[in-house]
Amino acid sequence: MSQDNAASNATQGDAFENLLHENRQFPPSDEFAAAAVAKADLYDEAGADRLGFWARQARELLSWDKDFGETLDWSNPPFAKWFVGGEVNAAYNALDRHVEAGLGDRVAIHFEGEPGDTATYTYAQLTEQVKKAANAFESLGIAKGDRVAIYLPMIPEAVIAMLACARIGAVHSVVFGGFSADALRNRVDDAEAKLVVTSDGTYRRGKPSPLKPAVDEALAKPGHTVSNVVVVKRNGEPVEWSEGRDVWWDDVVGGASAEHTAVGHDSEHPLFILYTSGTTGRPKGILHTTGGYLTQAAFTHRNVFDLKPETDVYWCTADIGWVTGHSYVTYGPLVNGATMLMYEGTPDSPHQGRWWELVEKYKVTILYTAPTAIRTFMKWGKEVPAKYDLSSLRVLGSVGEPINPEAWMWYREVIGGGRCPIVDTWWQTETGAIMIAPLPGVTATKPGSAQVPLPGIEVDVVDETGASVPNGSGGYLVVREPWPSMLRGIWGDPERYKDTYWSRFENMYFAGDGAKKDEDGDIWLLGRVDDVMNVSGHRLSTTEIESALVSHEYVAEAAVVGAVDETTGQAVVAFVILRGSVSEEIDVVDTLRAHVGKEIGPIAKPKTILVVPELPKTRSGKIMRRLLKDVAEGREAGDATTLADSTVMQQIASSLKR
Ligand code: PRX
Question: Which residue from 497, 448, 509, 452 is spatially nearest to 21, judged by alpha carbons?
């Protein structure tokens, strides 16, 4: 980590200093605590025998086709094997076994489309659909170990496709529907996917919005490994058709047999790859395997959300394109036999009360969402949720970015009526499942802090040398011991896995986040200390956006920073130096924003693009993003003494004034 980042982390830390005096605490009510799934003795049990604790969870939460021997093989760190020799089928655990247990009529998914159409899938119906899809994929030549790209909106077929892959041992790679054709192609190529599952499109703000054209564009250039594209009919809009390659979901899945026997896969068999942004321009394919991932996804979903599968209606608002949608839409809830709500659209369509209308309609009891959404609702005003009956809610979750105490309190009071515990959950694509969070019937919650590592998880905050910091101090967040749902590597790049996560501190996983321990030892997350930004809870790489910008003919050089934003947490601000030949008449900003949208996806479009004559660089040529962040956040630029040219910041300031 550069000095630059460490310094900016320190500044961030100071800004949070006042929060560390937070002394409001909200213990669970006696009634909640008495009925809670998780009890305090989980910490004692895991503390006394961490591996024994996880072995018990694995055996109790999952049905294994073959029991495992060793709980953890850590003989070749950082390459872990969990539940060694065990065999387990993820789809069987999410589906068939609930039907066999007589729960076939329980609703698995209440689906609500953006236009207001609805569908209900019981466990029996979902199991049947997944069996058909598994047969369909096999009939298209997909076998165990093959990779399948899933590029779908939030519709039940997304979950069905994921589980059909898991059932046959194919490895899914879900690509967020908001990513561009280029981003899709890069991911398809890196994973060497044989099949793409997509839809004609979806609905956005009441209008049909296309998806398949991006697949056609992504696969237009030869040299890819895709032999078929399965297309779900969602909005009925006309689509281009590639004969021999494209098949309708309704034909191939609809026509398939509903008989399919799930067989156990090795505990370490790859379950999925999910691409996420790192500090370099190239997204990383984070690899998760079966037994450990499912164990921790199910354990956390049950204990952190206090899940009572018989009575709860659970709603996680994340898209399946992100890890939250993997662990807390697909795998955790279904393995636990939960009833969930799935909503296709945006929160303001057709009106700003849509989410609360849905909570009332489906009597949602557990809601899991991101701080950005909460801050947006705060802006819209508490009169909007006040129009709906939210009394069914009993647990509220937050994920993806730090939640400021003000938003936390608003969530608690306005949405939760002051009665629902708030669980602020810290984790990452790489960790696979929640790592730090209060347990709702145990922990007295504290606005703004994710607080404590879960039982069986060894998290710490350390200084530059890797030494644990005392309470009241800040540093870097690390994980000291392997955990079941940890990433098993970066697809096709074991060296990058070691370098990125295991080289900064000896024998510790470095998460890339800054954190502080308060006087009680509770953990406060302070944001990334590397070149990763967090916009609306979505991870974006500064270097990836810089590469996109400089790939445009107008741009000579670019630097990108994440500037504090009231609603989205951070916003992308780009500084660009134009090539001499670019005429002043051209609308550079719009052109470049559109270009980034095309290269990566609309979520990566810079909010602001500033044309500058120079960029601040050190003598070794490294861009000092810290100084640009000062400019982007409207502060006087900090210490610039290490700049190669000390006048650069003045040049930038006066060019921006103009
Ligand atoms: O910086 C942390 C932030 O999101 C990053 C992980 O992003 P991603 O892999 O996309 O996964 C997001 C959903 C799990 C982390 O490195 N982050 C996640 N949850 C929190 C958080 N920051 C603060 N508080 C959280 N609860």
Answer: 448
CB environment 161-171: b (16+ within 10 A), e (fewer): bbbbbbbbbbb
Q: Is 233 exposed, middle or buried (0-12, 13-18, 19+ CB in 10 A)?
A: middle
174 close to 321: Cβ distance less than 8 angstroms: yes
Token duo for residue 38:
């998780």
Per-residue pLDDT tens over the stretch 304-314: 999 999 999 99
Alpha-carbon separation of residue 11 from 6, 16, 56, 201, 447 (angstroms)? 9, 9, 43, 44, 21
- 3-class SS string, 33-83: HHHCCCCCHHHHHHHHCHHHHHHHHHHHHCCCCECCCCCEEEEECCEEEEC
Number of neighbouring beta carbons within 10 Å of residue 103: 16
* CA proximity to 340, closest of 142, 158, 596, 139: 158
* pTM score, whole prediction: 0.93
**Burial group, residue 438, by CB count within 10 angstroms (0-12, 13-18, 19+):** buried
pLDDT digits (tens, 9 = 90+) for 165-176: 999 999 999 999
- CA 427 / ligand 1 centre spacing (Å): 5
Element (H, E) at 478: strand 474-479
User: Which residues are paired to 516 by β-bridges?
Assistant: 474, 524
Residues 6+ apart with CB under 8 A from 321: 174, 175, 176, 177, 178, 179
- The answer, yes or no, to whether residue 315 has pLDDT greater than 90, is yes
User: What's the mean pLDDT in 308-335?
Assistant: 98
Distance CA 334, CA 328 (A): 9
* CA-only gyration radius of the chain, Å: 24
**Which residue in the block uniquely carries the two structure tokens 């006066």?**
654
User: Residue 156, preceding bond cis, omega within 30 degrees?
Assistant: no
What are the tokens at 588? 């550079």
CB 560 within 8 A of CB 546: yes
Question: What angle, rounded to 10 degrees, do the helices at 625-632 and 3-15 form?
Answer: 30
Q: How far apart are CA 399 and CA 423, in angstroms?
A: 9
CA 350 to chain centre: 26
Q: Is 178 in the pocket of ligand 1 (CB under 6 A)?
A: no
Residue to substitute in 12, 374, 513, 531 for testing ligand 1 pocket (most ligand atoms within 8 angstroms of CB): 513
When pLDDT is averaged across residues 247-263 and rounded to a whole number, the result is: 98
Which one of 324, 427, 434, 487 would you pick to mutate in the ligand 1 pocket, going by the greatest count of ligand atoms within 8 A of its CB? 427
* CA dihedral sign, ordered 621, 622, 623, 627: negative
231 DSSP β-pair partners: 198, 248
Give nearest CA residue, ligand 1 atom 15: 428
The distance of Cα 519 from the centroid of its chain, to the nearest Å, equals: 30
Short-list 137, 142, 138, 141, CA closest to 157: 137
